[in-house]
Amino acid sequence: MKKNNFLEDLKKIQYSLRKKLILEDKINIDKIRYIAGCDLTFLNPFSNPCRGIGVILVFDFKTWKIVDKTYSIDIVNMPYIPGFLAFREAPLILSAYKKLKIKPDVLIVDGHGIAHPRKMGIASHIGATLEIPTIGCAKKLLYGKHEELPLEKGSYVPLYDEKTKEILGYVLRSRKKVTPIYISPGNYLTPLTALEIVKKSLKGYRLPEPTRLAHLYCNSIRKELLNKEKFGKLF
DNA sequence: GCGACAG
DNA sequence: ATCTTGTCGC
Prior knowledge:
By secondary structure, the protein is of the alpha+beta class. The protein has a single domain, classed as archaeoglobus fulgidus dsm 4304 fold, CATH 3.30.2170. Helix content is 31%, strand content 25%. The chain has helices at residues 5-18, 85-99, 122-130, 191-200, 209-233; strands spanning 34-42, 50-60, 66-76, 106-110, 134-138, 156-160, 167-172, 181-187. It has an eight-stranded mixed beta sheet, with helices on both faces. A hairpin with a 5-residue loop joins strand 2 (50-60) and strand 3. It is globular. The structure holds two DNA strands.
């Protein structure tokens, strides 16, 4: 028996899910009404199992008012393994997504889309599973090559697969001198459309508003939960 | 064989 | 990804 049969099985799931990817524009950027961002936080990230909190925030793409928000808390058994992030984090996102009363036209995920060794980053994983448009927006590079990026705000260069020469996404300098963010389509979008949507979602911070606020929402729920449990211990 | 490696 | 304050630079 092979030692890493476990990861081989997970790869098979990724290859299977990849068949559901459609990297074409299934939505028109001018017709987007609701856009969402999601994120996770953990209570004890270095232990497994540990508890995780997954949130989704839905915004009106025009006014940027929050129109819906949900979260889900559960035990997470899967550890973080580069290339397999979705198996650790996607379940909580999917759970939170089910609770939404208003489903977004597109979902921005904290992580990569097709900028992944098997073109199945967490954004693609979620997009393929739910069959919805998704965008991967990561803070660090996982896979792909790109040229040097100019220092000015708004500059970007393509992120490509060195093997196939195909464009996976874009590296974007979302603010003046900050380290860039990595944008790639998850599902139902082209790399260029993913870039344009993220650019339209920037509100003066390094991260696009949906992802940025989802992260803050995560932290507030986390703090609230810790307070409750501390209070419980007093009795 | 070695380095790289989202959250 | 968590625990943590002030502080330096643009």
